[in-house]
Amino acid sequence: MRGKAIGIVLIFLFPLMSHAQISIKGIVTAKDSGLPLLGASVVCGPQGTITGENGEFQLVTDQGCELTISYVGYRSIKQSIRSSTTDLYFSLEEISEVLDITTVTANKFEQRLSESTVAVEILKPNLLRSTNTVKSDDILNKLPGVQVVGGQANIRGGSGFSYGAGSRVMVLLDDMPALQVDAGYANWGDMPVEAISQLEVVKGASSSLYGSAALNGIINFRRIQPGAKPETNAFVSMTNYLSPRDEKYKWWGDTLFPYRLNVGFAHAQKLNKTDLTVHGYFGKLQSYAKETYETRGRMGFNIKHALSDRTFLGVNSLINVLESSDFFIWRNALRGIYEPFAGTISSGNRIRLSIDPYIIHYQKNGAKHRLNTRYFYTNNNNNNNQQNQSSTYFAEYQFSHVFAPLDLHYSVGGVLSITDSKAQLFGDSTYLYTNAATYIQLDKKIGERFTISAGARYEFNRQNSPEEFQGFTIPGGKVEDSQIISRLGLNYKIMEYSSLRLSWGQGYRYPTVTERFISTQFGGFTIFPNPVLNPEYGWSAELGIKQGFKLAAFKGYLDLAAFTQEYEDMIEFTFLENPYGFKPINIGNTKISGYEASIIGQFSVGEIPITTILGYTYIDPKYKNFEDRPEIKENTSTDQNVLKYRSKHSAKADVEASWKNFKLGYAIQYYSHVINIDKRFESPIGGVDLFSIKAYRDMDNDGSIVMDTRISYTMGKMTLGFLVNNILNAAYTVRPGVLEAPRNISLRLDMNLK
Known about the structure:
8 helices, single chain, Immunoglobulin-like, mainly beta
């Protein structure tokens, strides 16, 4: 009886004993560098926490639980815990596979590329250096489905040529908006390519997370962060532009060669509890286009200081100074293709300054608080009575947390942005633009295979302006609009390196101050304002599969996607007969469908490693009410129902092979003929082809093929590169009236001074 009693007691006590509370402590570091990992997830049973600045963690949990240590981009470690201990040490190994590269842009938290529910492309800085990229739009053009047209980013045909206003792609630098707010314009030369660690491109509507201007996608540039040892990199390059294929286009003499000189550096190091990054650039261009030039300088820094183990204060800053001259349209395609048409030269200087203070705090339970703020100042002066200046004040608070028992990551946040703008472009009036928003993002893993992502955003916009503007009456001097935007995405892990994704998201774009109030003239062209312009709405959907390869000869992935985008009240600049000139208008509803295939990765031929970027994109861009809008149909260059300034077919490839100290690269880009442009570009005055644009397009209607090649040799800490761009010396245009660069050669020296 006594034995039975003891047994019964033990039976009842066993659950209590098995759930006895224990305390565990430890440190998590990166295996390659030995540096502590801040923010690594530590989960044991129902309890979880994250590591602090020194990689340390402490957790009270149940005896007998399985401890899991994980960090995005590193291999997870699991260990059974039987008793209290304080001497645990974990060293995580970094994952090198392409599919395990970390992305933050898609969902505003760190996530493996293979788990994303939307299409994301990621580029590392090696390609920027090897291709001598000094303007960020040059590298964007290498990505499948991405093209920069007249300074505006175009993802899968979502944008055409918009005359420098109203981007449908949100551009970020270190997760902060980089578009000039009053114009909605990206200044690609401002991006610090000398200090970029990663470039992320999200394709498809992303307004639920990033608001207006993310209607078509996101481009995010990330600056380098300090590692275990101080590191300094510098480069100098010289580019010479050679004679065009047709000598009659050469306006310069035999003793003069147009050129570009570039010098840049970046330094990153840890100073006790402070992370510091400093970078700078100087560039001078004497262009192949007559009377155009550019002198640019920029300096920037990132500072992050640990106030405590879990609280960090930082500030990022960037200043750009530019003096330049450019023209809008060539003199004549048959006589002066690299020369400006009279009155279309724009020259002047510009200052752009951003200061971004922020604070981050991690709770012991893994919750993260982040407050980002910004002051963004722009001052543009030029010779065409088009001066403008603006100041933007921005703040965003975000709270994020992982609820371990449900494997649920959630983020909530709020945004407030105020822009004060005054310009001759806008009738010398002052405009105040206010944007406020709140959002929520949920990401849930179901088992080992399913990931569900959902988000919603409330967006409010207001523009304050004069009550009377060039014959328009604006009641109360303000225009307001609000919208609720949502998105949903699914990712199903078919097998280890294979995933299927399905996404749907709404998009929204509020017209910029420039689109509503611009009023200017140049070269006989007039651009008219449209104060009653309506916002754009839209949605995009995608079905895609990402197949990773980890074979003996290949590591990377194949991505196949079918997509569709629909827009309501799409905004485009259109040449109208009354009034006679360009004007931004709502062109009605449009639809862009298509498919895309890309391969990104590396393989080996014998002992020669080869990296590849291959891609093909097809789009079918259409007006949904083409026949019902005579002002649209009558002012296009074709009777075909196709949106302006889009190429239906594009194909790209970049291949680089390494052998001993040598690297050899080759790149090719193909864009099919742009079917439709503004009719008045072809016959601007009385039906006369004044600029010979129609004649040129009739001769050059097979699209464009551009080839580049490069070779480099590494000697210790220095790499010398020789590049030839536009090998075939092709004469091609991205938008009408401007011819791209002829064949050019570059020498580049990169130095690692660590």
